[in-house]
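Lay summary. Proteins are chains of building blocks that fold into shapes, and those shapes determine what they do. In this project we predict the shape from the chain. Here is one chain we studied, written as its sequence of building blocks.
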Amino acid sequence: MSLCGIELIGRKPSAVEADIIRYIQDRGLDLRMGCGGDISPGDSQVWARAERAGDTSVSAACFCIEDFEYHG
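And here is the predicted shape, written in a compact code that computers can read:
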């Protein structure tokens, strides 16, 4: 699954975060951050997050419907 050309699932969470922040800065968008540190560009309803996978963590995505108040 990708968002704006950024692969969101199965990567190092720090690499996904860096790609999203670069995308936001390049386009002058707002960065939204959930209570758990999940991030989302602009008014997207897709949130990038980290999930445990055994003894490590991988990136994942959370999809929300419009006007849903995501707290992460």
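What the prediction tells us: DSSP finds one helix and six strands in the chain.
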